[in-house]
Amino acid sequence: MEEKLIRIPAETQYAEELRALEVEDRRPKPGNWRLSPWAVLKYLTGGKTEQGLEITPKYIGPRRLLEIAIASLLSDRALLLTGVPGTAKSWLAEHLAAAVSGHSNLLVQGTSGTGEDALRYGWNYARLIAGGPSRDALVPGPVMRAMESGQLVRIEELTRIPTEMQDALISILSEKCLPVPELELEIQARQGFNVLATANDQDKGIYPMSSALQRRFNVLVMPLPASLEEEISIVRQRVHQLGQSLQLPLEELRQQNVEKLLTLLRELRTGVTHDGKQKLKPTRSVFSPAETISMLHHARIQHHYFSERPLDATDLVRAVVQTFVRDDAEEREVLSSYAESVLRKRNAWNDWYEAFREQLLVK
Amino acid sequence: MASCDMRLFGIRHHGSGSALRLVAALETFRPDALAIELPADAAELVGRLQNTRHRPPFAFLHYDKEKPDRAMYLPMAVFSPEYQALRYAWTHAVPVHCIDLPAAISLCLPKAKGTDDETMPEACAQIANDPIGYLARQAGYRDGERWWESHFESWTDHEHLFGIVGELMGALREQTGGMDDPETLLREGWMRRQLHALLASGCRRLAVVCGAWHAPVLSRAHVETTPDLPFSETKTCIAAGAIIPWTYRHIALTPAYTAGVPAPMWHDALFQHKSHAPAAFLSHAAHCFRKEGHEIAPSAVIEACRLAEHLALLREFPAPGIEEMLEAAEVLMPLSQTGADPAEKLLYGEVTGYVELGRESLPFVRHFHSRLAALRLKRYWKDGSPAERLLDLREPRQLDVSRFLHACVVLDLAWAIPAELDWNARGNFNERWIFQWHPGLEIDLVECALLGNTLEHCCSARMHQKVNRAHALPDIARWLEHSLKAGLDGLWPELAAALDLACLQDHNLVLLARMIRPLQSIFDYGSLHGTPTDFAARTLEGLLNRIVSGFANHCLQLNSDRAQAMMEALLLVQHHFDRGGAVEWYPVWMGQLRSIAHHRESHPLLRGKCWSLLAGLKEIGEGEFLEALQREFAPQMGVQQAAEWFEGFLHGQSPFFLLLPGALKCLDQWLAVQEEVDFMAFLPLLRRSFAQMKESERKRILQALAGQQPNQTSAWVWMLHPERSAIIDAGYGRQA
Q: What's the average model confidence in pLDDT over A13-21?
C-alpha cells in the first residue's frame, strides 16, 4: 500500500541530488561528513553537477550566510540560527543536516516541557528495575545518538526550553562528552558531531540563554528577503509546492496578483514605497515570507471551496486583513493610512484600493 | 646619463603589501636619489614635514588661493608606500624629488573624468579607469583589492614582484593602445620630463616610486624617446599648500581621492602585524566593543580568528581578507540587537593623525578671519566679558552679520549665542546676540578646517555629520531654522529628508502638530523671498497624513493631561484648516472629528470640542445636535465628565448652540436629576467654563432660560445668587 505522506524529509526528497554530489565529490571531507563542505555549499545554493544534473537551490538568500553556516559547523562551535519567525531557519537546518550527515531525523523539539530525556538519555524502567543500571537499560536521546555516531543533531526552538535544561548542553558542547554517572562511563563524541539550533527572537515566553551557553554558539541571524524579486520567487516556489501536495485542482495565482501582493507587503514591512520616494508609517507585524506563504495557501484553499468567481484582489485583501489586522486598531490605522496615501494614487491598483476600503471600514 | 641605474617600483597607493615590499626593495637597492609620484609643489611640504613632529595619518592639502573651494587632498597613512619611501629617504639622507604634475596646474584642469570621454572606446576606458579591477574581473574575482591581496600579498620575493607587476601593467597598456584620459597623459608627460632631467643630473642609482599603472610609460626607453608635451599653454593658478591631520575615516570616504581604501584599519593591521593581522584586527575589534560596554570574551576573539580562516578556506582564498574579518566579527560579537553599527569602528577606527601646525596654514581659518574683519566683528573675537549686540535685519549689512553668526551656530562654534529666538520671530526684524570668546574656540576652528575650506562647505559637512547621528524632531527643527537664517540653501534638502524621517518615527501627535505652523510659515515666507521651499510643502503633506489619518484613535481612553495635550494638537490642526491649508484633507479631518464626537470612549473634553467645532462649521444640523446632546446628557453621565465636556465645548467659541430651546431643556433635565452632592461638585467646574463666556452671551442664555420657562423655576436660574443678580440687574438698569 502506498502511503501518501504530507511532507517527505529532505534527504528522501532530494536523494538523487545528494547521491550525484557524493559521487563526484573529490575534495577532502571532514570526519564523518557525507559531503565535502564545497559540495554542501553547492547543494544549498544550486547549480549543475558534472553529469548535468540540475541541483535546485534550497535557500534563496545571500550566499555568504551559507558559507558562514558551513564554516561554523567545521569548527567545534555549535551553530545557532536566529531571526524573525518565518525566515527559513528550520528549513535551512533540515537541509544542512541532510547534506552533512545524510539524514535529518535526529531532532529535539524544544518546548517548556522538554526534559533531560530528550537532551541526554532516558531509562527503560522495566529493564532498570529488573536488572539494575546497565547499558541495555539506557535509552539514548537524540543528542547522545548523534554523539555516538558522529552526526548533526538539530534542536528546534532552543529558547523555549527552560534555562536549567538548556544548561545540560553546556558541558556537551564544551567538552564533547556526556557523562553517565549511573554507569560510571562517559560517552565521547565522534568526529562530525555538532549541534544545530534554531531560536525565534520575537516571541514572548522565551527562556533566555545563559551566557555560558551563548558562548558555545556561533549566532547567525537569518535576514528577510533583500529584494522584491527574491521574495516573489521564494513565495511562488513554496506556494506551488504546498498546493501540489494537497492534490487539489487549485486555481493558479496570477503572476501580477502575486507581485502586487508582495509589493504591498514589502512596502508595509520596510516602511518605504517601492520606488523609495514616500515614507510610510511602520507596522508592528513583520509579514515574513512564511506567513505570506501560508496566507496565500489558505486563500487558495478557501477560494477553491467557497467561491465562484476567479481569485482576485478582493480575496487576497481579505486574507491580508484577516491575517495581519485581526482586531488590532493600530494596525488597521496603518493599513488604512497606507491605502489612502499610496494605493489611491496608483491607477493600476484601483481594485486593491476599493477592496481595502471595503475591508477596513468595519467599525 | 648612461651610468645611471634607474629602477621603477610600481606600487598600489595605500597598499600595505606594496609598502612592505617597497621598503625591502629600497634597502636592497640603496638608491642615491628618490623620485616619488607627488605633486611638484609638495616638495616644500615634504621638507617642512621632515622637521615637524607628526604622526600619520595626515594629508597634503593643495588649494587655489583665489578660490579655496578648489582643493586637492593627498592622504598619507603609515601603510602608504609613498610615506614609507619618504621615511627611508629621511633615514638614509637620500634627496627626494616630487615628479608629478604641480597642483597649480592640476587644480585648473577640467573635472571631467574618463567615463564620458568619447575619444576612448568603452573597453579601454574600463581598463584605464581601474586596471586592477579589470584584471580581477578577468580572473573571476569581484573585487580588485581581493585579487591583489590574494596574488601579491603573500609574495616574499620583492625583486621579482615589481618586475612582474611592471610586465602585467605593460601588457594592459598595450591593450589600450596608449589611450587614456587627458589628465593622466598630461601627468605622465610631466613625469617623463622630470625623470629626463634627473637622469641628466648625474645620480648613480635612481629609484622611482609611482603608481603601478604609470610604471610602463616611465621606463628609460620611454623617457628618452617620447616627445615632450606642450606645458607652457596649460593654465595655472596660485596654489598654496598645507599639511593637516587626517583620519582613517576620511581616507576611506573622501571622494576627492579616487584610489580610496575601504578598510584602513585592516591595512594598518596588515602593515604592522603581517601574518598575524587577523588576530590583531579582531583583538582591536574586541577592544572597541568593550569600550562601548559590551563584554567580549577572549575566547570569542579566538573563535572569530578560526572562523575567518575557515571562511577563507571555503572561499578558496590563501588568507582571510576584510570581508571574512567583518563576518567573523559579526557572528561572534553579535551586536545587531543593540543597533550599534560596528563597521565604522572596525574599518576606520578612531585613528587621527597629528601634525604640529601653525595657524596661518589652514585655508578655512584664514577665510574665517577675513570674514570677521569684513563684517567688523573682530572686536568680539577676543578675551573679555560677554558683549551684546542688537541687529536690525532690514539693514543689508546687519543682515550679512546675522547670516554669518547663524552659520557659526550651525558649525557648533560656541561663540555667539542668539538670545530668545523662536519660530514666531521670523517676521520680527530684530535679533539679539551675545558674544563670549574663549581660547578653546581656536581649536574648534582647526577642527572645522578639516571639514572644508570655506564656511559653506564646513557648514554642510557639519550638518551632514549631525544628521547622520540620532536626533529628535525639535533638534532638526532648530537646525532647519538656523540654516534658513544663515542663508545656507544647500543644506535644506538633507534636513528636509531628516525631518521627514523624524516625523515618521515620532508618535507624539502633539509634537507633530506643533510643526505645522513653522512649516507653513517657511513655505509662506520662502515664497516671499524667492527661496525654493517645496520641501516644506511636501513635509507638511506627509505630516498632515500622519496626524489626520489616525487622530480619532489617539483620542480614546486618555487621562486629563493627555487630553489637554491632544486638545492643543486638535486646535493647531483646525487652525491650519481654517487658514485655508490642505483642502484635500478636509473631508478626512471632518470624518475624524465626527468619529471622535460619536465614540463613547473618547475623552469628554475632546468630544465637547468636536461637537462645538462641527456645530460651528455647520457640518451637523440642529436636529442631529439635539439628539446627540440627549445621548450625552443621559442621567448616568458623571459630573466630572460633564464638566470636561462643557470645558471642551465652550473652549474659545461662543455657546450659540446652547441657545437652542431643546438644548437648554435637555441640560436642565440632566441637572435636575443630579444628587445634591454631585450638584455642588459640579458647580465650580461649570462656573469655570461659563466664566470664559462674554457677558452678553451669558445674558442671552439667561434670557433664553427666562423666556423658555417663564413661570417655573429652572435650575439654571438658581445658579445666580439672588443678591448678586439684583446688583447685576441694577447694573444693567444703570447702563440701560
A: 91
Q: For residue A12, what are the CA distances in angstroms to A8, A20, A239, A335, B197?
A: 7, 13, 20, 43, 77
CB contacts of A278 in chain B (<8 Å) are 542
Residue at grid coordinates 547522545: A144
pLDDT given at position B735: 45
Identify the CA nearest to B426 among candidates B406, B404, B409, B455. B406
Q: Is the dihedral of CA A115, A118, A121, A123 positive or negative?
A: positive
Inter-chain residue contact B314 with A220, CB threshold 8 Å: no
Cα separation, B132 vs B412, whole angstroms: 42
Residue linked to cell 540620532: B470
Average pLDDT, chain A: 85
Cell numbers at A163, concatenated: 534555562
Q: Is the ipTM of this complex over 0.85?
A: no
Domain ranges of chain A: 10-222, 228-360
- Cell numbers given for A138: 539506557
pLDDT band at B708 (very low <50, low <70, confident <90, very high): low
The torsion angles phi and psi of B527, rounded to 5 degrees, stand at -65, -25
**Which pLDDT score, from 0 to 100, does residue A139 have?**
92
- Asked if the model's pLDDT at residue B555 lies above 60, the reply is yes
CB atoms within 10 A of CB B257: 17
- In angstroms, rounded to a whole number, what is the distance separating the alpha carbons of residues B647 and B728? 25
Q: Of the ranges A218-222, B42-46, B649-653, which one carries the lowest mean pLDDT score?
A: B649-653
Whether the CB-CB separation of B531 and B537 falls below 8 Å is answered with: no
Closest Cα partner for B10 from B164, B222, B228, B225?
A: B164
Backbone angles phi, psi at A279, to 5 degrees: -100, 145
Neighbours of B706 (CB within 10 A): 12
CA dihedral B267, B269, B274, B280 (to 10 degrees): -150
Q: Taking 80 as the threshold, does the pLDDT of residue A60 lie above it?
A: yes
Q: Does B331 touch chain A (CB under 8 A)?
A: yes
* Among the partner residues B314, B500, B546, nearest to A71 by beta-carbon distance: B314
Between A64, A71, A336, which is nearest B549 by CB? A336
Instruction: Please list, residue by residue across A279-309, b when 16 or more beta carbons sit within 10 angstroms of its beta carbon and e when fewer do.
Output: bbbebebbbbbbbbbbbbbebbeebeeeeee
Using CB atoms, pick whichever of A71, A279, A337 lies closest to residue B307.
A71
Q: A-B interface: how many C-beta pairs under 8 angstroms?
A: 68
- Interface contact flag, A68 B307, Cβ < 8 Å: yes
Check the CA dihedral B73-B76-B81-B86 and report its sign: positive
Grid cell of B152 as nine digits:
601579491
**φ, ψ for residue B629 (rounded to 5)?**
-60, -40
| Residues B12 and B18: beta-carbon distance below 8 Å | yes
The domain A10-222 belongs to what CATH superfamily? P-loop containing nucleotide triphosphate hydrolases (3.40.50.300)
Please name the residue of chain B whose CA is at the shortest distance from the CA of residue A328: B553
Cβ–Cβ below 8 Å for B504 and A279: yes
The answer to whether B185 contacts chain A (CB < 8 Å) is: no
Backbone angles phi, psi at B59, to 5 degrees: -140, 145
C-alpha cell of residue B464: 551632514
Please indicate if any CB of chain B lies within 8 Å of the CB of A340.
yes
**Considering only alpha carbons, which residue of chain B is nearest residue A333?**
B550
A333 to B550: CB separation less than 8 angstroms, yes or no: yes
- Are residues B549 and A279, on separate chains, in Cβ contact within 8 Å? no
Which range, A152-156, A170-174, B701-705, is most confident?
Answer: A152-156
CA distance B645 to B631: 13
